[in-house]
Amino acid sequence: MRIVLVGPPGAGKGTQAAYLAKNLSIPHISTGDLFRANISQGTDLGKQARAYMDAGQLVPDEVTIAMAKDRMSQPDAVNGFLLDGFPRNVGQAEALDAMLKDEGVKLDAVLDLEVPEDEVVKRIAGRRICRNDSAHVFHVTYNPPKAEGVCDSCGGELYQRDDDSEETVRTRLEVYHTQTEPIIDYYRAQNLVVTISALGKVTEVTERAMEALGSEKA
Description:
Number of helices: 9
Number of strands: 8
Low-confidence stretches: none
């Protein structure tokens, strides 16, 4: 299957992408991983992206598109893939359509993870990270530490990242509504959108997604 995963920040896209890719035996291709891989390997595209990032500028669509095209051409993606973070706008969606058309294939589904805005803010703004080890993540509501402000694992101080503040989260949501959400209407016009609720336990959302994709495939 060839799937695009969309949803607001805090919808759990990364978590669901990993589970779905494993269940469907297709590679999970995320924009973040593409950038990190190209930059760390020193590819031409990575050098271009790094130059923009170092200058504090957004990486142009053509660079992102080229990275995605290169990754989708690799052997493990021949029979399908799950795209996470790409396309991010209608221009990228149109470029993806053109790429797939050139290869004689098409998308099977666009999985839209739906989460109420207030829940997104609650999920992200409630996160607390350990200063000693960023892999130790807690949540003031869903996964509180035994002692407030103290990591259960190592006793380190827990803090809220600047980009997890409510103000920043609402700004990120506005960017999502303006830039990314329009691709849902773009793909809905092609009858590709499958919308599911991303509320509940991770396993419940995965099961919901697999059922929706199964019916879409059928």
